[in-house]
């Protein structure tokens, strides 16, 4: 499903990016003889498929989850910092306001996706599928799924939203009152229940359609919605009803194989590279294209507009001004996680780039007894990328001095086997040699094309354990303890004798670091404000990676949510004030 060439054609036919508050756009399209109407577009199964694929395109474009949404999701946590403008909403500085464009872009595109989904839901039943109801149901299920996901993303990030419950027919349909979060949760859960019923099980889609959602995708997101709703609303909502048993049941159905066989990959690292995308652990995976030649940021071009942009994830020293670092508490958490053979937790090597020659790192041995080293871009080791000077450690030689206090850079989202810049024969390009040491400079950023495995089977196991430990009924023969130990077992960690919520919280740090879940874990556990206050007090370098005085600190009762974009506030008379603090 990496070939999205049809997506933008479908997007254009569908009317382009539909923005909120654009009164009259539908009237204009109706009288434009060069613009096909939406009604004329939905005339065949292939046309419906093009419309469905457009929703995947909206999600994967750089202005949605490819850059703006993904960096905001990842960097807002306590795990890492970025000086990319796409990561700035997570740096809690002066730039975090209702006008900031990397907040507005995914907001708009999520609503665009929901509008497209609603049109499919209302129109596909009238299209002639020549008796192939399974295919019609699959397309309808995808529409229900992506409408639910769009609202789920909006709800957990912006809190106060107004759902699109039907196809918008004119500009006024985009101006709707905000709804209570409980009503939005109900809407999401209803859509996902429809999606689960209509979508095919694993194995229906062929290899050309790898990455399209299935019943397990819907069940996993539905369980996640039940789990997140239970925690978030307990701390921030008026309706504090919990749904832990419902969440456990959805996860249990996946664990028990109701929708097909899912399992952990043998190698943890297979979840974060290009070669092993859409593997047996993948349940919901956003598809991205790689591009080594066109590093320009040009949404709308197939060569770069549907790519996972490297900006915001590049390593210190990349020389492009878009770098990311891991906070030292997370580095230390991995250093302190030792497996049954006395080695450093293998997951650390897929999560961050760091000095693996440090005395605190215990390297495993290969079959020949050689230490297995961590390799960075181009296959180079730490000392080749960051040669030490004057006895300093960490990123001592990096030109950006703000990187110096940090011990690691972000690795997830970067496939280090793929060259950043290549010679004509495809080999990595060295920029120069200094002091007898090769100095590899990432002269030009690239879109690595690493898919975002948004929900993995490991997450289903851990969320199942959390739901039951939090009070839900055990819905599978697998116990919460067995689920957690299965995840730990892949990392060769010792089995826990019993499992508590603290154990689950600690294991989620190690298993899912830098995958975009941590902020929302803290949010639903009611620990977000306390955690940020603790790190601001104990770590003088926490979030200090843009400028010395840019970080303003996490503000309780404000930074739990993003501001509603100013364009939406100005165009919707039902919004009389923004989220608290903005």
From TrEMBL:
InterPro entries: SusD-like_N (IPR033985), SusD_RagB_dom (IPR012944), TPR-like_helical_dom_sf (IPR011990). It is found in: Cell outer membrane. Residues 446-582 form the RagB/SusD domain. The keyword Membrane applies. Belongs to the SusD family. The keyword Hydrolase does not apply. Residues 69-227 form the SusD-like N-terminal domain. It comes from Bacteroides vicugnae. Its main location: membrane. Keywords: Cell outer membrane, Membrane, Signal. This is RagB/SusD family nutrient uptake outer membrane protein.
